[in-house]
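notes to self, project folder thing:

trying the whole complex as one job this time. last attempt i did each chain seperately and stitching them together was a nightmare. two parts in total, labels are on each line so i dont mix them up again. if this works i'll redo the older ones the same way
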Amino acid sequence: MHEWGVARELVRQAEGEARRRGAREVRSVTARVGPLSGVAPELLARAYEVARLGTLLESAALSVEPDPVLASCRECGREGPLEGAVLACPRCGNRELVVRGGDALHLAKIEIEIGPEPPGGEG
Amino acid sequence: MCETCGCGLPEAAKRRSGEHPREHVEEAVLYRGLLAANDAQARENREHLLARGVLGVNLMSGPGAGKTSLIEALARRTRGRLRLGVIEGDLATDRDARRIRALGLPVHQVVTGSTCHLDAAMVHDALHRLPLDALDILFVENVGNLVCPGVYDLGCQLDGVLLSVTEGDDKVAKYPVAFRRANFLCISKTDLLPHVSFDVSRPGQEARVLKGDLELFYCSSVTGEGTEALLAYLEAGRAKLS
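result (full assembly):
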């Protein structure tokens, strides 16, 4: 269950970036998570529900963008994404593959609100 | 859902924002690594080890694959030819550290509590508790777990996975993350092969899909079989540092 630490880091980085840009609030946050990253998106989402409390992300929905494992099959030559982390060619079933990608673990995007100046501000 | 403009925000967030609807919303495209802090610490660990001429070796496996026994077997085999030290990682107890200390090797036990893996910061703290100038190879025995340790770079020069023949020959594709990180795979407990059904070629084939240049070893810590080859590989890795 290392997803808790990853969720906290996601919130920490997103909040830091939002503050740098003068945001009042983060509306949504997107993580990019590959099947070879070692992080389960559903556990990350559950941990995020707790990690976001009391932060600028309190109301921000989390979406997870996939980062598929790309494979070339040494048998039939198919090139393309695999299903999850199943290391077999989806066309011919062969297991002799060359794989790349699929290990992303990124804070991809945030959508932030730049609010009105607070009352009494310099605005 | 906000009833004023349908923006999807709950009431509390709407109130906090002061004015409604908002002045402007923008998207920031970032694509930043979520393990950046760990990776930076890992780089520092790697430089620290390199500066002292120490080869760091992260050993990963499920619980009971024989990591501690392998370190003991390698220590017996090397007979002082290489100066070994160990960082032990466990959820609880210093049982492994006591076994290593009994061999006369410098050891530091990291007790992780409920944390299922070591990370670069834990290794950094441990590095300062070991006599690095008196070591050639530092084993970092990770928490017994074939899942989470694979996620974290510890800053070792080599990462290795042990897979014992009693665990089954189908584990590589089931737990791909640790094998993707590995420089070497050691099939352990080979003395038990006559008693189990285990295709010795299968783990290596599957692991090389994940990591093309993976080195493969077959070891028994009981008979000592294969430990000389592994030791020679580690010694060559140590020699490349200087």
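what i see at first glance: The first strand of chain A starts at residue 25 and ends at 33.
need to look closer tmrw
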